[in-house]
Amino acid sequence: MDYQAVLEEVAEFARPLIGRGQVADYIPALAEVDTGQFGIAVADVDGQVYGVGDWERPFSVQSISKAFSLALVLAEGGDRIWERVGTEPSGNPFNSLVQLEYEHGIPRNPFINAGALVVTDRLQTLTGDASTTMLEFLRAESGNPDVSFDAAVARSESEHGDRNAALAHFMASYGNLDNPVPTVLEHYFWQCSVEMSCRDLALASGFLARHGLRADGTRLLPRREAKQINAVMLTCGTYDAAGDFAYRVGLPGKSGVGGGIVAVIPGRCTLCVWSPGLDARGNSVAGVAALDHFTTLTGWSVF
């Protein structure tokens, strides 16, 4: 596969869509991001990486971080996390309070905000420092020691995080958080504030394409648990548009409102695309189209 040629064709296909959509202006630190940017990278299972456009420019990973926190929780604490969070699509916006009341403080899946807060709480219990644990993992897997938090984004999210605080307090009232709510929120906001490029994210998520093996060949997860993460990414990873994403793209994916999407082709490669303009459901307009075209050109999907 000539990855470089494929990515160049994908970028050309996505070009008319670059700039469409809106940035996540409810997070003030993201409100001024230029929607005219676009990058895409692919990393094969051997760690070779290719990219076009703004593929080496760091951006705010936001909810893409949830896939990594889930992996670390499974690696550190096994599958007990599934007693506290489900694996079903939510069908509701990622910050909805509605289902939590109906379902007694148990979030539908680990990729909506409530579920990610439970996962962060568990990672904090297991490690004593959830956000730093994730940062060190991302630096190691991407091979980039400069991956870091964006303090301005973390502060912005904290100052405008009333909905997330409400979710956390509601779950705490049902006994589904072990750590103090302010601690969980702090680590959650720091995790979402991590800045990485398409290159970094494609490499860092490679363990999902290698069935649980890290970049150095050591095992992070059993094959079964890597499969579980990919499965939940496919059904729940793109907010309440997961069904449409599975229909169009056919790959496990995790998006973030910073405009990035990571996608996995088990046994072959991982991709990351970034374009900040979002559709009404919080997914990158150009990014979804680019991944759709990639699978069309290559014929690769999980189906």
Question: Would you summarize the structure shown here?
Answer:
Helix content is 45%, strand content 11%. It has helices at 3-14, 65-77, 98-102, 113-127, 130-142, 151-159, 162-173, 181-192, 198-204, 206-209, 223-236, 242-248, 285-298; strands spanning 39-44, 49-53, 59-60, 148-149, 194-196, 253-255, 260-265, 269-274. It contains 13 helices and eight strands.
What can you see in these coordinates?
- With 303 residues, this protein is α+β, with helices and mostly antiparallel strands.
- The protein has one domain: Beta-lactamase, CATH 3.40.710.
- It is 45% helix and 11% strand.
- It contains 13 helices and eight strands.
- Strands 2-1-8-7-6 form a five-stranded antiparallel sheet.
- A hairpin with a 4-residue loop joins strand 6 and strand 7.
- The model has no long low-confidence stretch (mean pLDDT 96).
Give the key terms.
single chain, 303 residues, alpha+beta, Beta-lactamase, five-stranded antiparallel β-sheet, three-stranded antiparallel β-sheet, 13 helices, 8 strands, 45% helix
Reading off the top of the CATH hierarchy, the class is best stated as Alpha Beta
Order of helices and strands: HEEEHHHHEHHHEHHHHEEEH
**CATH homologous superfamily caption:** DD-peptidase/beta-lactamase superfamily
Which architecture name does CATH use? 3-Layer(aba) Sandwich
Cα distance, first to last residue?
19 Å
Uncertain residue ranges: none
CATH fold-level topology? Beta-lactamase
Count of runs of 4 or more consecutive helical residues: 13
Measured on Cα atoms, how large is the radius of gyration?
17 Å
Specify the biggest β-sheet.
Answer: 5 strands, antiparallel
Number of domains: 1
> What fraction strand?
5-15%
Oligomer: single chain
Overall strand count: 8
Strand order of the largest sheet: 2-1-8-7-6
The helix fraction, in percent, is 40-55%
Structural class: alpha+beta
Determine the mean pLDDT.
96
Global shape:
globular
